Amino acid sequence: xxxxxxxxMGGVLIHFIPSHFIDRLHVSExxxxxxxxQVFRSVEWVQMDRGSIDEEAAIRRFCRRxxxxxxxxxxxxxxxxxxxxxxxxxxxELAEELKNAGYGIYLLSNASVRHPQYWPKIPASRFFDGxxxxxxAGYMKPQAExxxxxxxxxxxxxxxxFFIDDLPANVEGAEFVGMRGxxxxxxxxxxxxxxxxxxxxxx
Length: 203
What we know:
Strand content: 5-15%
Shape: globular
Largest sheet: 5 strands, parallel
Mean pLDDT: 97
Number of domains: 2
Distance between the termini: 14 Å
Structural class: alpha/beta
Strand order of the largest sheet: 3-2-1-4-5
CATH superfamily of the largest domain: HAD superfamily/HAD-like
């Protein structure tokens, strides 16, 4: 029996669209491509999620390889990408419905040490019973250890958890440790509801 629903954050609860964050800066098309490649597609971005470097260290590295006129843009992208947070339509209502139905609601996210600064801004966060973030865990999805850490920390059984993520590899990681799961496609909450029902969730 499913007793707990485990959500990813970016691409599930909120939109995480690097090109949109860059568009807010009103830089040239060429500079936008450079920022996308050198910031969001960088090793440092992954290292921030792993917790092996913090934001200030990443900013210093980015600035060393980017022209000086983009340094302020780099700082804004790293420290202010979440201003404003963009919730995925329908996910607040889904989380509320699941909570009211008696399910435990948990977050399992690859995110940096800044997570506590923006997590409360996400409307659905009010319904969550627990949070595990990669930067503080020392593991990242789809490593099996991070799913097991969630279960150990909150006394959950993997076979009683249903995991939702927008990346198939992360759902596969959850299934590897015994959870059920579904890939959240393109903001389609109704499709997700059907996947939950097929997985034994009563909504």
